[in-house]
Amino acid sequence: MKLFNCKVTAIVLNIGKRFSAKSVQSYLSKNVQMDLTVTFLRDPNSKPQTTQTGYTVELNFLRENLDKLKKLTENNKLPLILDQRIYSKTSQFFVKSVKMNEDIYGMFTQYCDENYPHFRLQDLIAQSLLDFIEKY
Fold it and tell me: For residue 3, what are the β-bridge partners?
């Protein structure tokens, strides 16, 4: 059972024969719930090496998500910004059936699902139509 919940840097002076580094570490790890840094000093006048432990959670997050973060920074594409006309409140919407090549539609929907899962497919198709009108 852990008695304390805290972050501690323990500095133990003159371990000598009564306490070993292992026994102190073992006792603290059993009785104190914390981020534990134990420094053992034989000489009371020596200074412990200081380490920066204030960013443990952030560093662990970066370590765990490094591949995902690299992927985000490697993406050379410009962000997709949908035209405001697509979301216009005054627009009329209607259902339209369009006959198209199944393979091309499959490639388009797969690309949209992988790269823009936060957009609705109908909005991406509308943006594609607007881009086609402006380009040609």
Answer: none
